[in-house]
Amino acid sequence: PPPIESAAEEPRVLCIVQDTTNAKTVNERLTLNLPASTTVNKLYEDVAHKAGYVNGTFCLAWANTGDMAPLDQASEMSLVLSGFEAGKRNFMQLTDKEGEQPQVASVNSSGLDDSSQDRFIGPLPRDGTVGCSSDYSSPSYSYSSILNKSDTGYVGLVNQAMTCYLNSLLQTLFMTPEFRNALYNWEFEESEEDPVNSIPYQLQRLFVLLQTSKKRAIETTDVTRSFGWDSSEAWQQHDVQELCRVMFDALEQKWKQTEQADLINQLYQGKLKDYVRCLECGYESWRIDTYLDIPLVIRPFGASQAFGSVEEALQAFIQPETLDGPNQYFCERCKKKCDARKGLRFLHFPYLLTLQLKRFDFDYTTMHRIKLNDRMTFPEELDMSPFIDVEDEKSPQTESCTDSGAENEGSCHSDQMSNDFSTDDAVDEGICLDNTSSSERALKPKSSLTFELFSVMVHSGSAAGGHYYACIKSFSDSQWYSFNDQHVSKVSQLYITISILSNLLILCPNSSTNAYMLMYRLKDPSRNAKFLDVEDFPEHIKRLMQREKESEEQEKRQREIERNTCKIKLFCMHPVKMMMVENKLEVHKDKTLREATEMAYKLMDLDGVVPLDCCRLVKYDEFHEYLERSYEGEEDMPMGLLLGGVKSSYMFDLLLEIRRPDQVFQPYKPGEVMVKVHVVDLKSESIAAPVSVRAYLNQTITEFKQLIAQATGLCAETMRVILERCYNDLRLLYVPNKTLKAEGFFRSNKVFVESSDSADHQAVFTDSVLWKLLDRHGNTIRLFVSLPEQSPGSLANRTSCPKASADSEDSFDGAKGSRKSVEAILEESTEKLKNLSLQQQQQQHQQQSSSTSDSQKSSEHSDFELIESPAQEPDAASQPSQTENCTRAASDTENQFPSEERSDSDVNNDRSTSSVDSDILSSSHSSDTLCNADSGTLPLANGLDSHSITSSRRSKAHEGKKETWDTAEEDSGTDSEYDENGKSKADAQYLYFKTEPYSHEDGSGEGQKCLLVHLDKRITLAAFKQNLEPFVGVPSTQFKVFRVYANNQEFESVRLNETLSSFSDDNKITIRLGRALKKGEYRVKVYQLLVNDPEPCKFLLDTVFAKGMTVRQSKEELLPQLKDQCKLDLSTDRFRLRKKTWKNPGTVFLDYHVYEEDINISSNWEVFLEVLEEPERMKSMSQLAVLTRRWCPAQMKLEAFREVVLESSSVEELKEKLSELSGIPLENLEFAKGRGTFPCDISLLEIHQDLDWNPKVSTLNVWPLYICDDGAVIFYRDCTEELMELSEEERNELMKKESSRLLKTGHRVSYSPRKEKALKIYLDGGPTKDPGQD
Question: What PROSITE patterns does UniProt report for this protein, alphabetically (predicted)?
Answer without folding.
Answer: USP_1, USP_2, USP_3
